[in-house]
Amino acid sequence: MFGFKKDRSVKEKKEGYFSRIIGFKRIGSNVDSIKTIASYTLSPARRISEAKVETFDEAVKRHNVSDHDIAKILRNFNINFLVFLFFFSACLLGSVYNLNEGNKLSAIAMISIAFICFTLCVKFSFRAYQIRIRELCDFKKWFENKREWIPY
Question: What are the residues whose beta carbons fall under 8 Å from the beta carbon of 19, sequence distance 6 or more?
Fold first, then answer.
């Protein structure tokens, strides 16, 4: 318009300069690397196909554990289950009390702790079940057998 010509080569050099500073190509390669790692880590099919399969007796031999040790471990799992069941119940009751009193933040905190305690109850119950039946079964088998949820 005023007799100035656009110098296209300067603009391309500037774009090249900024892309080098920001590192678009490196960001793209990092994204590809992260996708590869995430697909390997989070893909259940890949993890299941590469999983090591062993029986309860093979695991006992590999860890060199006696029947007396197994009985003590089972007893510890049962006690841990009962302890965390108590804490779960106490946290639930405490959260109901805090909701009645109007302490919403305390109630949310206690519900969060109760959720953690419940998760540990499930874990110890499942492990005790595996030891009782002397089989390294999956979670689904334990979940379908409702009578075994509370270890004795």
Answer: 25
Sequence-ordered list of residues with C-beta below 8 angstroms from that of 62, at least 6 positions apart, any chain: 54
Tokens representing 62 are: 């590999």
- Residue 142 to residues 34, 54, 91, 146, Cα–Cα distance (Å): 35, 18, 26, 7
Four-residue CA torsion sign, 48, 54, 56, 59: negative
DSSP 72: H
Chunked into runs of 10 residues, the chain (152 residues) has average pLDDT values of 56 54 63 78 74 86 92 95 96 95 94 96 95 90 88 78
SS3 54: coil
Domain boundaries, given as residue ranges, for the chain: 8-49, 56-148
What is the distance between the alpha carbons of residues 126 and 81, in angstroms, rounded to a whole number?
Answer: 10
* pTM > 0.70: no
